[in-house]
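Section 5.1 Outputs to date
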Amino acid sequence: MPVSLWAVRWTRPLTEEESAALTDLLPSARRERLSRLKSPEKRQEALCAYGLLLLALRRLKNWTDFPETALNDGGKPFFPDCPDVQFSVSHTAGAALAAVSGQPVGADIEQIRPLRQAFMRKLMGVEDQDVFFRSWVRREARTKCTGAGIGSMLRTEPPMEAGEFYQEADVFPGYQAGVAYRGSGPIKLARLELEDLIGGLL
């Protein structure tokens, strides 16, 4: 299965009815994690990210619900009963990203926002904002693909290995996104608005 990348953005909060309906679609473990989030904005980000993943799985695999999910030793979620379907989700202020593939895959999206040069220099040794976000998203996607964790690529990013690929994704203005994957392309990208997501799920 080639990499299928899905992106959604929103400019309004979910209604209480939409939020409740999307929550009901989540796996129980994900609902429990969601309940611990204090910020309504962060809860919406996570709801939309996993809603986007479910919509992708419905369109690509004709699944109606999430199968059982688990975490590997590095904390990467996977479907134990469906090893041929691998996925990655990411969310940021106002947007979310989901990737589905038959091989290991990692996706990341970040809202581009002002950062202090001292912060960028300390974290990754760069001072240019565009360079920082392009580098951060690439590293985050690569570590999500392997399940290693972003700490393994701070300050120094190892070279790409044989069979490892990375591609930037032109999703929405004001966002940096990308996907790391094993196997071959091409990558198919679908861009949605919040109404498309809600209408496709509920």
